[in-house]
Amino acid sequence: MKKLSDILPISSWAKYGKTPFVIAGPCSAETEQQVFETVRGIASGHKVHMLRAGIWKPRTRPNSFEGVGEVGLKWIMEAGKEVGLPVTLEVANAEHVEAALKAGVDALWIGARTTVSPFHVQSIADALRGTDMPVLVKNPVNPDLELWIGAIERFANAGLTKLAAIHRGFSTYEKSICRNPPMWEIPIELRRRHQNIPIIVDPSHMAGTRELIQPLSQQALDMGFDGLMIESHINPDKACSDAKQQLTPETLNHVLNSLIVRQPIFDSSVHVELSTLRSKIDRIDNYIMELLGERMGISEIIGEYKKENQLAIHQSQRWADIVKHAVGKGKANGLTEEFIIKFFQQIHNESIYHQSKVFEKNQSPEQINHPKHIIVKE
Ligand code: PEP
Ligand code: MN
Question: pTM for the complete prediction?
Answer without folding.
Answer: 0.83
